[in-house]
Design brief:
Layout lengths: L2 H29 L6 H11 L5 H21 L3 H19 L12 H16 L6 H4 L9 H29 L13
Helix pairs in contact: 1-2, 1-3, 1-5, 2-3, 3-4, 4-5, 4-7
């Protein structure tokens, strides 16, 4: 097997794996598939972690994950697909960041891995075993990479920034304990 063939096969496997996982997560949010909570339940969760309005946030995250993941798996519109999925994962990482890095402690490891994989595929391209290649890269041009990432970064910054402001404002009214109380048994 030639080096280019191995590269294309490797990109196909990465796209199918990461894209499939992203699409499955998105359908949990949108349709309640695979044990998910659908728009209603995910919307309530989104509200509880500071993304408001919850239903719209759940819809946006679900569409970015489902659409971005599906397009990545197909190797179609790869710059936009990867950027959208990476943006959704940046929003998820913001929720998990206070718990540290590792997933076992509720950290952002998993979201970061999916987001970086999606971003890497957007930049690298889908390879020859893709719909982008089959269609002559009509929706996978070099200029589309910075455009997709700029649009996604701007949108993600607005959404994650608004969440951070909501969380700060909610904590303003809370008073921290001056001393820790210890109870003796």
């Amino acid at each position: 097997m030639r080096r280019n063939d191995r590269r294309d096969l490797g990109l196909l496997l990465l796209r199918l794996g990461a894209g499939g996982v992203l699409a499955a997560h998105g359908t949990q949010k949108l349709f309640g598939w695979f044990g998910g909570h659908g728009i209603e339940g995910t919307g309530q969760f989104m509200e509880s972690v500071g993304y408001s309005p919850g239903k719209q946030s759940a819809t946006a995250a679900g569409l970015a994950e489902t659409g971005g993941g599906t397009l990545l798996a197909l190797g179609l519109a790869t710059p936009a697909a990867g950027a959208a999925a990476a943006g959704a994962m940046a929003g998820a990482a913001a929720v998990h960041a206070p718990n540290g890095f590792f997933n076992q402690g509720g950290g952002y490891e998993y979201a970061a891995t999916l987001g970086l994989t999606a971003a890497g595929l957007a930049i690298t391209g889908p390879g020859r075993l893709s719909l982008d290649h089959l269609l002559g890269h009509a929706v996978n041009r070099g200029w589309m990479i910075p455009a997709a990432f700029a649009a996604t970064a701007a949108g993600t910054a607005v959404v994650v920034g608004a969440r951070a402001r909501r969380l700060r404002k909610a904590k303003e009214g809370e008073q921290e304990a001056l001393f820790e109380e210890e109870y003796m048994e």
